[in-house]
Design a protein that fits this description.
By secondary structure, the protein is α+β, with helices and mostly antiparallel strands. It is built from five helices and nine strands, in the order ααβαβββββαββαβ.
């Protein structure tokens, strides 16, 4: 085989390898596009989950939510809601915020705090600060006067809640949003 023949064979092999590289790049690009489509919210809209399951136990909810595509949370009318959307199910956990009222007794001018069981004093301080039984902290938003009693109303800090849910559920916070799922 002459030197020229060897060069031609090498050129041929290089061209074949370049063509294969282009084909691989095209296939990889298509695969990435398909993955993005399957993980996009549009995919969820085209294939909505079929079952809606309300769970009462946070640990069970957390276990089921591990492979979720999207998590929604909100605090509506003193009720915390957390929804985890999987491929074919929506899991929901809800919990009422602590009901803490303050009442000023005119006779003794004492401040009476109600809605707290005094079994474990350390736990009761967390109620004053606003904490759900699952450990999520709430911030006191307003105190509303209802017939001489003052009820503490809580609110969520969206960024704190996203980070907390991300740690609890093992889901990146980009896939956690504040809002609710319309049923």
């Amino acid at each position: 085989m002459s030197q020229t023949d060897k060069v031609e064979v090498m050129d041929f092999l290089i061209n074949v390898l370049k063509d294969h590289e282009k084909n691989l790049d095209t296939l990889i690009s298509r695969a990435e596009d398909l993955l993005e489509e399957n993980q996009s919210p549009q995919h969820l809209m085209q294939n909505p989950p079929g079952l809606k399951i309300s769970l009462k136990d946070w640990d069970e909810f957390r276990d089921r939510a591990l492979d979720s595509e999207l998590v929604c949370f909100d605090l509506i009318d003193s009720m915390f809601y957390c929804n985890a959307i999987t491929e074919n199910k929506i899991y929901r956990y809800s919990e009422e915020t602590p009901e803490v009222t303050l009442e000023l007794k005119e006779k003794d001018n004492d401040l009476v705090l109600s809605g707290i069981k005094m079994e474990n004093l350390e736990d009761q301080f967390s109620l004053l600060n606003g904490r759900l039984s699952i450990g999520l902290e709430l911030k006191a938003n307003t105190i509303k006067n209802t017939g001489g009693k003052h009820r503490i109303h809580y609110d969520l800090d969206a960024l704190y809640t996203k980070n907390w849910l991300s740690r609890e559920l093992g889901i990146h916070r980009d896939f956690i949003v504040q809002g609710n799922i319309d049923h």
